[in-house]
User: What shape does this take?
Amino acid sequence: MDLRFTDAAPDAAERAAVDDLLGPPPSGWEGGTGRSDADLRWARGGASAAKDRRDQLLPALHAVNDRVGWISEGALNYICRRLTVAPAEAYGVATFYAMFSVRPRPAKVLHVCTDLACAARGSAALRAELTDRMGSPGSPADGTVWQESPCLGLCERAPAALLLRAGQDPARDGQDPAPAGADGSRRAAVVAPATAAALVTAARAPEKAPQEPPATAAVPQAGDPALVLLRRIGVVDPASLDDYRARGGYAALRRAFALGPSGVVREVLDAGLVGRGGAAFPTGRKWQATAQQADGPHYLVCNADESEPGTFKDRVLMEGDPYALVEAMTIAGFAIGAHHGYVYLRGEYPRAYECLSHAVASARTRGLLGPDVLGQGYAFDIEIRRGAGAYICGEETAIFNSIEGQRGEPRSKPPFPVEKGLFGKPTAVNNVETLVNVLPILEHGAAAYAATGTGTSTGTKLFCVSGQVDRPGVYELPFGASLRELLVLAGPPERLRAVLLGGAAGGFVRPDELDVPLTFEGTRAAGTTLGSGVVLVLDESVELPRVLLRIAEFFRDESCGQCVPCRVGTVRQEEALHRIVDRTGAGAADDIALMREVGQAMRDASICGLGQTAWNAVESAIDRLGVYK
Amino acid sequence: MTAVPLQPPRRLVPFTLDGTETRVPEGSTILDACRSAGTDIPTLCQGDTLTPKNACRVCVVEVEGARTLAPACSRRAEEGMTVLTDTERVRHSRKVVLELLASSTDLSTTPRAAEWIKEYEAKPGRFGADAARVDEQPKIDNDLYVRDYDKCILCYKCVDACGEQWQNTFAIAVAGRGFDARVSTEHDAPLTDSACVFCGNCIEVCPTGALSFSTEFGMRAAGTWDEPAQTRTTTVCAYCGVGCNVTLHVQENEIVKVTSPHDNPVTHGNLCIKGRFGFQHVQNRD
Assistant: This one.
């Protein structure tokens, strides 16, 4: 590969941001200033070395974006020189992610959520007021630009906003970060529930924005002895490894070492654990298939790219009990024979990133991660990779491309990840909640675990309840509880109109269907889905056609653009919903028929789950709720 | 004498194609099987010299037992598989895909597009006059070729041909996301400022005419492009000793474009700037 660059050069801050991540340039060939005699005799690197470093592209783009606020031509050139990446490819990657900008913008970017839960709680009015005070979205004023954002995963505190400020970070990435607000230069401030006044204040002085409430505030059941996955949230100090161990932490890992890898897989199989990310695939089978692959190394990827609108359970777990995920990943890595685990964390979760980074770093210093975990001769380490604003990167193969420094486009299957996953090697991808379930399985045994729930859905499930309820938050219930029971806990509205189960890719249920059992098989039988556990409650004040329009907008924005049915189909769906937003009956019939046809093709012919499910919620609203009748 | 590369014998995989027991060499795709059985499957993003990207989804077929349809171009035939290529479901997806493409991009120079639209009874107009289109102006930033992205269906073939699959130049990539995704150089710079070496291999693989010789683009604009009247002569490029085959497309005694046979075992359709664009001296009569 013969790289060609434009003349644009990085400024000092951009250069420093990249060098902080990658170290100083080893030679003039890689962007160093001047070329020594030795450089002229010996060109290091080459295509194969470049391939090994390609996965640093996304972290490098983050480094510049975090320091300067946007990625200039000079900065992109410098990153490309350092990593031997073609500028066109790096540009393609940088423009794929919503949190990056390749045009100048202020250091402070305020993301205001427009998605379902926030819309149900007044985000439209908030944005209107914000437009009055700060100008229209996307137009910079006073060193800040605000923009509309898809779901920020703060649905229990809707309407939500997230302020990100670029600048020098005293605690560098990868090292033990200082807790937010300990110094004057806070990089992120969450404002939720947000008012326009609070947002204006926060934008002016992010360091003075009020601290976020602890994770336990999102768990209305906190303290309930029946909790399993959430039992430590609010009880344990999320920053203290000693506290975690004092509350039963690392007992499961000890048991795992006693059982051996195949024993762990057997235990997880017997427990009947299935994936909580939405697809409900048996975790034990995935692990077994990965462990059996002759090719190596094996990788573990924890999918923490929680972007389904209305989902925030993984955030609460990572913020409230981060060591649980570290321990669970160690067990999973041990079971599948992996020595390297990645957490792919969504970019909009700054606090979860801090909590988890701290947990990983302190576990490493204490020998719970590293070359010899717990003195058992097993090497395992965890690397956290941040996403940068792309829903599609929660798709299991898009994650691989994103980590590898490619555009986050899904791959076609087969081959499946257990065979060819991250870096083309056997990989197990598990959601945060799925992994955390491994702890009670090993602590109490498969039989005890499987005693909870139903025959095919064992254990407990986290539900993200948001919208018009009295007590939104993450709830944990044994599988088999009905939707009605869950709503009673959360305090349902007086005049319930509909409940959206499973998020934007899920489906609506009517108020007369509340007895649907919350299990994978029960919801499937009722023609809906549990998905990632979203329970969005809407009362009669909500205009459903606008909710559907927002769902369609979401999919249009988040489609990666790779395949035609999804790239153009999501646009046509949105156009049709626009046309009928105020119509009913015969006036809407033609467009509904059109959407059915497009929806069917998206479901049948799209490459990945995004396109395949983009029509689900709209279809269920038409068929079950009779929205346009 | 042309060398015929011999390959080790391959096991035959038995499977059912449209109700007929078929056997194809191991590793064959469903599309390979269909073509050898004489079944015509529409394809756009599939290229005979490139790894299938399966992005256009116009070649989808039904595999019994699968939840979704499978792209024939990349799905390999497996033992015991039952494949149906012309069911209602398949025809529906192909029809809608053609409608989505034709309503958003200009397929006027895509070979066979009009024929398929007719065959599948696609009606691109039914999304209304306001349906969003790609809406791009032709990019004319050099003398050799034009990028008319209004005709681009984002099949990734040019990106793959420019990148690691053939040319290793990496001058272009897909930038942006979703409906706004476009094939682009870095920062949308003109080709002359990019890494482009003007080999024109992207034009060779473009299935829609979005990439075309300046000569062809100009003649189409002037209404003088007359493909049936053109002759094609395959000869050997005279510039260097590699011996690449070039096919000269000649209209009214002028070379109007140059392609290269894809079945050439040395170049597989690839040329360099000289073979692709260096033909002016032939018609310099002064």
